[in-house]
Amino acid sequence: KAQPKAPMNHPDALAALARTPPGYRPRTRHLCADGTPRFINALIHEASPYLLQHAHNPVDWQPWGDAAFAEAAARDVPVFLSVGYSTCHWCHVMEHESFEDELIAAYLNDHFVPVKVDREERPDVDAVHMEFLQRTTGGGGWPMSVWLTPQRRPLFAGTYFPARDGDRGPHRGFLTILQALHENWRDPAMQQQAEPVLASMRDQAAADPDATVPPPAILGALAEIYDRQFDATWGGFGRAPKFPRPCVLDALLRHAHRARDHVARDQVEVTLTRMACGGLYDHVGGGFARYSVDREWLVPHFEKMLYDNAQLARTLLDAHQATGRPLYARVARDVLAWMDTEMSDPAGGFWSATDADSADAAGHMHEGLFCTWTPDELDLALDADDAAWVKSTFGVRRGGNFEGRSILHLAAPLDSPGWDRWQRVRRTLHAVRAERPPPGLDDKVIAGWNALAIGAFARASLVLGEPAYAARAARAADFVLGAMRSGERLVRAWRAGIARHPAVLEDYAALIGALLDLVSATGEVRWLDEALRLQAVLDAHFADPAGGWFRTPDDGEALLFREKPDYDGAEPSGNSQATLALVRLAALTDEPARHAHAAAALRASGEFLRRSPHGAPLMVCALDAWHAEPTVVVIVTP
Question: What is the DSSP annotation of 528-580?
C-alpha cells in the first residue's frame, strides 16, 4: 500500500535536498482552478491506460522512442526506463511513493530522461530489458527499472524501489540510487559491465538447432517433472504463490491421453477443481484472478487478465471432454460470460484487464474490496435463509479471511441443487456489487490476447455445440483483422479507435491458431485463407533460417538483441504458439514445405526441450502433435 510522502519541510526531504547539486529546485506546479496541483507530461498524448495513469505525475515522462534518447544525448544524461502495466499493484505503489513525490521527480527530471513503457503494448522492449535484469540480479518483475546510456546500453537494473532509505527495511531508496547513478554513470567500468551479459544474450538467441526432431518421449519427461512438484492436497505445482499456467495442464492432458496415464489426468482434475472452489475464482462475477498468494488458492492477487481467462476457459473445455465432468463446462461458461459481458469493447474486441484495487466510500484504495463480503452485507442483500446459506457455504464470517472481509470460497464443488440455488442468489449479489466503485479497467485491445479469447470461444462452440460462441469469436476476429491490420501487417494494440505499435510474433501466432479454431468450429474457408496470409507474413519477416521465429520482424526497431522467445509462462511463447499453429496448418493443407518448416522449429527448440521440457509445455504439445498421426477423413459426394 502506498505510504504518505514526506512533505518538503520533512527532515528526510531537506537532507536529500542538501545533497543535490547547486541550482537544483523542485519543478513549478501548475494549479487547477480549485488550487490543487496539476502536472501534465508527454504521456498525455498516449492511448495506453497505463501511460495515461502517469500523465499527471510531476515526472517529465516521455514515451519510448528516438526523441527521448536524442534528448539524453543532447543533455549528456542517462535514460531512466520504467516498465509496468495498468493492473500491477507494485507499479501503483512506486508511482505513489516516488513518481508523485515532487522532490524525487525534480531530481529525476534534472539528471535523467524519464521514459515510461507499457509492457503490454511493447512486449519486445520489455522482454530484452527483463532478460538483462534477470541475468544481472537473478530475479525480475514489475515495475522494472532500468538505467540506459543515451546509446541505449544498460547500466543498472532493478524492480520496485522504496522512495527513500529505510522506508521498507534495509533496501536502498530510489532517491539514493538516482544520486549514485548520476554521480557514477560516466565511469567506463560501469558502462562496460553489461557487455558480457549482452554477448551471452545474443549467443543464446543464435543457438544451433538439433539435427533431428526431438522424440515424443519428452512429453513423458515433462509429466515426470510435474509429478514431483504436484501438490496432492490443493492441486497446482510447487509452493505459494501459485499461478494457473494453463499450458502445463494442457500438456498433462495430452500426456494422459497418449499414455493412458490416469495419474496425470487426476492431477489436472485436482488442480482445476481446487482453483474453481477457491478464492482465485470470482464466484459472483466469473473469471479467475492473476494468481493465488497462498497454497490453497484462497487469497488471490485480485486483478483479472484476459489472457489468463481465455487460456483457462479452453483448458476447462478440454478437461470437460477428457473427464465428462459438468463442473468444468459450467465454469468455462462462466469465464466466457465474464469476457463477453464485462470485457467486450462495443467495436468487437476484448479489453485487457481489471485492476486489483478499488475505492471505499472515502475514496481510499483497497485491494480486493470490490470482490469481498462481510456477514452484514449479505444480510442486507439477501433474505435470511439465503444469507445464512451463503455464509455457511462460501465461508463468510466475522473478521473474514482477508483484511477483515471474506473472500468467497467453497470446500467442495456445489451439487446440482446447490448450483441452481447459487445461480439465483448470485444474480442478487452481482447487482449489489455493481453499486460499489469498480476496479480500474484497462480497455486497450491487444491482438494476441484477443486471439486467445477468439480461440476459446470457437473451441466452446465446437465442444458445447452452441453456435453463439462461434459468432462471438467471428465478430472479434473480424475486428482484429480489420481495425488492427495495416496492409498485410497486424498492429499490436488498439484503444478508442487508435491502433498503435507493430504486432510481434505472439500476436501473429495466436491469431493463426485462433483462425484455425474458427475453421474447425464453422467450416468457413475464409478463416483458413486469413491464417495462410498471416503465416506468409511470419515466414517473410519473422522466421529464423535456422528454425523458429524472432519476436520482432526483420524491418522492426533494433533493440539490445533480436530475441527468440522460448519460455512458456503466463502467456505461451510466440515460438510455441507459432509451432503448434504451423503443425495444425500443415495437417490441414498437407503442404510438404509447412511440415518441413514445423520440423525445423522443433529442431531449433530441441536442446531446450531436452534440458527443460517444463519450461516450454506448449512447445511439448506441438512436438506431440507433430509426432501424432492425424486422422484424415475424405468424403466423396456427387
Answer: HHHHHHHHHHHHHHTB-TTSSB-SS-TTS---SS-------SSS--HHHHHHH
Is the omega angle on the peptide bond into residue 241 within 30 degrees of 0, that is, cis?
Answer: yes
What residues have CB less than 8 Å from 4, skipping those under 6 apart?
A: none
| Residue 200, helix vs strand vs coil | helix
> Quick count: other Cβ atoms within 10 Å of Cβ 345?
18
With H, G, I as helix, E, B as strand and everything else as coil, classify residue 66: helix
DSSP for 425-450? HHHHHHHHHTTSPPPPEE--EEHHHH
Q: Record the cell numbers describing residue 473, joined without a space.
A: 469469436
CB 576 within 8 A of CB 618: yes
Please tell me the distance from the alpha carbon of residue 18 to that of residue 33, in angstroms, as a whole number.
Answer: 33
Report the predicted TM-score, pTM, of the whole model to 2 decimal places. Answer: 0.91
C-alpha to C-alpha distance for 476 and 301, rounded to whole angstroms:
28
Tell which residue, 571, 593, 600, has the closest CA to residue 513.
Answer: 571
Residue 8 predicted with pLDDT over 50: no
Who's near 203: CB < 8 A, 6+ residues apart?
Answer: none
Contact 211, 200 (CB under 8 A): no
Kindly report, residue by residue over 473-500, the tens digit of the pLDDT: 999 999 999 999 999 999 999 999 999 9
**DSSP conformation class of 306:** H
